[in-house]
Amino acid sequence: MTSTVNRFKQAETQLEAKDYKSEVKPIWCAGCGYHGILNSMYKALAELNIDPSQIINISGIGCSSRTPYFVNSYKMHTLHGRAAPVATGAQLVNPDLPVIITGGDGDGFSIGGGHMPHLARKNLNITYILMDNHIYGLTKGQVSPTSRREMKAYTTPYGGVDDPLNPVKYLMGYEASFVAQAYAGQPAVCKDLIRQAIEHKGFSYVNILSPCPTFNKIDTLQYYKELVKNIPENHDSSNYQETLNLINSYETEGKAPIGLLFKDTTRETLDKRMADLVKLVGGSSDYDLNKIVDLAK
User: Fold this and answer.
1) Among residues 144, 75, 149, 135, which one has the least CA distance to residue 111?
2) Which of 55, 181, 226, 241 is 20 to 30 A removed from 74 (C-alpha atoms)?
């Protein structure tokens, strides 16, 4: 299935999921939910049929931030929590290309948490796929901003002292223009939400709940089975207040809402506002960066 939204350069022929795989094989633990998320990402890109040479995949640090190695695209594995600034620069310089951040709950909401509100308020035209396993996996099991207080890690042997952050509620608070949540154990839903997020013009955030069988011993498959709950089919994702009420009601019930929660197509994106500013001050978008660099030599 090819998307009817063709705002990105299409491949010359219809590609398949395998065409978006790089030569590097995933090195995540057996049973990690990231395998399913990565395959969902491949399938979403295939449905959009985007030319792989046009894709920019950027990450920070962590198990999930290794994702760009496994994707056939241009890529950059950056510093702790710094995927957002790099993605901002990449998107503003290349506004016609899909820019995708892939990262985890620690990288996105702890050391990189200060960037998240600004991605939302600026409405940067990128997609942020956050793989939320409620733990620091790469550094062997510390609690993360989304960990439950019951979690006993080797740095917090008596459990945590902080309440967990609710990512979708957080992003709604900063009025991101696209907010969705998926579960790695529902690959078809993951694929659909990732595709919709990439299609969306503006800052699109997809929180994907994912089990970590190696270090997170309390958020088991059975836990997620009881936690996730699909949102009603008649939910109005364009209604901000209705979405907030829905998230709050699920939180009270002890459930995690799965689906497209909110989508606002009316807001201008940062690259559009920057282009307007260039025109306003008499600048031109038709310039050759290489010539500027040559003049500086």
Assistant:
1) 144
2) 181
Report the distance separating Cα 28 and Cα 120, nearest Å.
Answer: 30
Residues 173-216 have pLDDT tens digits of: 999 999 999 999 999 999 999 999 999 999 999 999 999 999 99
CB neighbourhood size of 272 (10 A): 15
Burial classification of residue 154, based on how many CB atoms lie within 10 Å of its CB (0-12 exposed, 13-18 middle, 19 or more buried):
exposed
Element (H, E) at 129: strand 127-132
- Give the DSSP H/E element, type plus range, for residue 256: strand 256-263
What is the bridge-based pairing of β-strands 228-230 and 256-263? parallel
Pick the closest to residue 171 from 221, 118, 135 (CA basis).
Answer: 118
Quick: pLDDT tens for 94-139. Answer: 999 999 999 999 999 999 999 999 999 999 999 999 999 999 999 9
- The whole-angstrom separation of Cα 64 and Cα 206 is 14
Report how far apart, in Å, the C-alpha atoms of 166 and of each of 102, 131, 191, 234 are: 18, 13, 22, 23
